[in-house]
From TrEMBL:
Every Methyltransferase domain range: 59-109
Originating species: Clostridium magnum DSM 2767
InterPro entries named in the record: Methyltranfer_dom, SAM-dependent_MTases_sf
UniProt-recorded name of the protein: Release factor glutamine methyltransferase
GO biological process: methylation
Keyword annotations of the record: Methyltransferase, Transferase
Domain of life: Bacteria
Coiled-coil region: none
Entry EC number(s): 2.1.1.297
GO molecular function: peptide chain release factor N(5)-glutamine methyltransferase activity
Classification via SUPFAM superfamilies: S-adenosyl-L-methionine-dependent methyltransferases
CDD domains assigned: AdoMet_MTases
Length: 115
């Protein structure tokens, strides 16, 4: 049992370092996502997903959603999007980006699968 306790403790340290890494980069990622969205060369991921005019996906799970760039696009073709990320700051930008675009079918969750 001690072995597993030690492994769990080590994984929490790694998780904390990863979270800090992405929290520090959230503003930069959000700025780049906005620049890409506003670019005349912007291609939506929806351009690569074939969906019939009258058909929507039921649920989409976006793991590692960052600032919500793809989550927002997925919300166009699905009934419900659950988006998760390790970074609280990324999720704050994602929630704001979804709100600005009036997307009410996206739920953002931190630490999916973590205690």
């Amino acid at each position: 049992m001690e072995y597993f306790s030690k492994q769990w403790s080590n994984s929490k340290k790694y998780y904390t370092m990863e979270e800090k890494f992405w929290n520090e980069r959230a503003e930069e990622f959000n700025r780049k996502d906005i620049e890409q969205r506003e670019s005349e060369n912007f291609f939506s991921i929806l351009d690569f997903i074939e969906v019939g005019q009258d058909r929507k996906f039921g649920n989409v799970l976006d793991i590692g959603c960052g600032t919500g760039f793809y989550s927002i696009q997925f919300s166009e073709i699905s009934e419900y999007v659950m988006a998760t990320d390790i970074s609280e700051n990324m999720l704050l930008y994602a929630e704001n980006n979804a709100k600005v675009r009036n997307k009410s079918n996206i739920v953002f969750v931190k630490n999916l699968g973590q205690n």
